[in-house]
């Protein structure tokens, strides 16, 4: 049984990923920061389905707190599957964007990637098997009005994933990014109505969290051993 950590595991996409990885037989560590009750609920659902899971809480932007939490997790063995899913929005047109809006989004998506991934990399390398999967966005590929901060953070995540894939390619560890388009979660509620989705998405519907989870589960599997350094879109043919 491999051990998996999913940051932001209490949200819509994160919870779907946690449940799918657990269904595939992995022990899943469901991470949250503020939504600790939701993380506990995801764990309870996994346990009720005879899966294996536990919850953990820390702020991915706090390097010391993250390192301390990961040190405790590593006492039970290496985390061989890491899904960097934690992310936030703080949208504004660029001329009106505050420094705090810029910093907060970059801090969670990009600095959070470093704070979580770096301490887990060497233990993963020692097992000669690993999967690092970061959840990005179509905005990191095409850009998006009102999301210069979010697009910048996700675009940087793509470059970081490609560079890390090169470093780890000979160690049995793959590194990829998954870039969803419009997915039916609480995060997009109110942002897109049905008509807007039909206009933006050639498939004329929002994607489901479970569809993203299926892609992540494949990338985390043995079958994806030769896929690394890729940014894989799941967006209903938007691009």
How would you describe what is shown here?
46% of the residues lie in helices and 16% in strands. Helix 1 runs parallel beside helix 2 and helix 4 (99-127) runs parallel beside helix 6 (148-168). The model has no long low-confidence stretch (mean pLDDT 96). A 7-stranded parallel β-sheet has the order 3-2-1-4-5-6-7, sandwiched between helices. It has 8 helices and 7 strands, in the order E-H-E-H-E-H-E-H-E-H-H-E-H-H-E. With 239 residues, the chain is an alpha/beta fold. It is globular. 44% of the residues are buried.
What spatial form do the alpha-carbon principal axes imply?
globular
**Low-confidence runs (pLDDT<50, min 5 residues)?**
none
Order of helices and strands: EHEHEHEHEHHEHHE
Q: How are strands sequenced across the largest beta sheet?
A: 3-2-1-4-5-6-7
Binned, the helix content reads 40-55%
Radius of gyration: 17 Å
* Average pLDDT level: 96
> How many E strands?
7
Strand share of the residues?
A: 15-25%
Number of helices: 8
Largest sheet: 7 strands, parallel
What structural class results from the helix and strand content? alpha/beta
